[in-house]
Amino acid sequence: MKKRLIAALLCVAMVPRGFAQNLPELGDNASTDLSPLAEQRLGAQIMREIRWRDPAYLGDVEVEDYLNRLGDRLVAAGAGAGLPFQFFGVSDPTLNAFAMPGGNIGVHTGLILAAQSESELAGVLSHEIAHVTQRHIARMVGKQSQTGMLMLASLLVAVLAAKSSAQVTQAAIMTGQAAGLSSQLAYSRDFENEADRLGVQNLAAAGFDVRGMVSFFERLQKNARLYENNAPAYMRTHPLTGDRITEMEGRVAQMPYKQVPDSLDFSLVRAKLKVGAAATKEVIGEFEAAARAPHPALAAQYGLVRAYLSVRRLADADREMVEVRKRHETSAMVAGLEGDLRLAHGDPAGAAQVFREARGRFPQSRRLLYGELEALIDAGRPAEALTAVKAEVQTTPDSATLWELRARAEAALGKRLAQHRSLAELYTIRGNYAAAVEQLTFAQSAGDGDFFEQSAVDSRLREVRVLLAEQLREMRSQR
């Protein structure tokens, strides 16, 4: 993770011992593990930092939804069924994936692009899921309870730092509170072997090619010599040995061969990540060559449209989109690309129609939902957007994006009290309680709400002030 997050967590690691009372309880004295409740709370705290304060967090709902569909398929097939998992992307070219407390699993974009098959990517996720279901992180952290809660924070700093920068990791270790931590940066051999064994079993149970997991680790091992002392981040936190590879090969050899085709969305996600925010000439050239092949893959054509769109070559994008439509492939990502093209042409009403029709086929797609709401607002139809977003907020009240879109629709309709109240919910989700209190104070003085709306604002303001007071007490204890 980037230095901003590491710096914030280092502050946690270096606070006085009195801070321990503000960290999650480890559980009863007889247990050396981090309790499940404490693990969930700790994971939620870290995810809040990553999601709202780390610029490396990949805020792309299409990629995140894909990772969660893939991850949920693996979780449902194994011991993790019923446990809360959350998969997210990190914008980083290095090969890495990591599990954190509470079932939060991050995947670097570099690893997604490096995977040569969906089964390879699924193999990495399956390995990380096993670390969570076997409570390896909780057991590593829980052991530190005997030497105080400060070691808990220090360990988390080191684990997060090890994901990206050896220099930042060393800085974490050099702090007085993190002394002697270097041996805890990586999973133990027993933990890795257990995650390998269960990961392979889970991969097979979910219907993937188990050889994908072996092939990925073999490629990492073969390429390790090219990195010399700067090994891939994944190898630093997951020690890879010849014995591990041999054991995995032995397990896989006893399982029936199963060739599994990649899903369309796996190819489309990789194409989208390769394009990035603005495609380079080299990337455009690669997609052009692939799309001009005798039998081009849809992902090549999709990637070319997105590449042209990213650099505003709209006429070229329109021409290539015609070829994409001819494929008649069903994918929410293809429909989303069609909507993006309409928006680029300044046709938000047309885009809203595209998104709405596609949502009928893909009702679970957040990308299509957000696209329709935004297009309706841009098309001068905020009342329609507000009606739709209110219904969605009822079922997904913790979505910051929905509250932001709701605030935009309310602002366009001149609903000042409602707008400030929605912004307050947005800031509350982000953990910025001071800004939430400010917005609720604005709502109180807006003067355009009825008695019931005003009462709701007053009640919510009291609740958020309690949260702010707790946050301020915790900050004071860290000084």
Structural write-up:
- The chain is mainly α.
- 66% of the residues lie in helices and 3% in strands.
- It has 24 helices and 3 strands.
- It has helices spanning 3-13, 36-53, 61-76, 109-114, 118-133, 136-142, 149-161, 166-174, 189-205, 211-227, 233-237, 242-253, 264-275, 281-291, 298-310, 314-326, 332-344, 348-361, 366-378, 382-395, 400-412, 416-429, 433-444, 451-477; strands at residues 86-90, 97-100, 104-108.
- A 3-stranded mixed β-sheet has the order 1-3-2, with helices on both faces.
- A hairpin with a 3-residue loop joins strand 2 and strand 3 (104-108).
- The longest helix is centred in the last third of the chain and has 27 residues, at 451-477.
How do the strands and helices of this protein lay out in sequence?
Layout: H1 3-13, H2 36-53, H3 61-76, E1 86-90, E2 97-100, E3 104-108, H4 109-114, H5 118-133, H6 136-142, H7 149-161, H8 166-174, H9 189-205, H10 211-227, H11 233-237, H12 242-253, H13 264-275, H14 281-291, H15 298-310, H16 314-326, H17 332-344, H18 348-361, H19 366-378, H20 382-395, H21 400-412, H22 416-429, H23 433-444, H24 451-477
Parallel strand pairs: 1-3
Antiparallel strand pairs: 2-3
Helix pairs in contact: 1-7, 3-5, 5-9, 5-10, 7-8, 9-12, 10-12, 13-15, 14-15, 15-16, 15-17, 16-17, 17-18, 17-19, 18-19, 19-20, 19-21, 20-21, 21-22, 22-23, 22-24, 23-24
Structure, briefly:
The chain is mainly α. The chain contains 24 helices and three strands. It starts with a helix and ends with a helix.
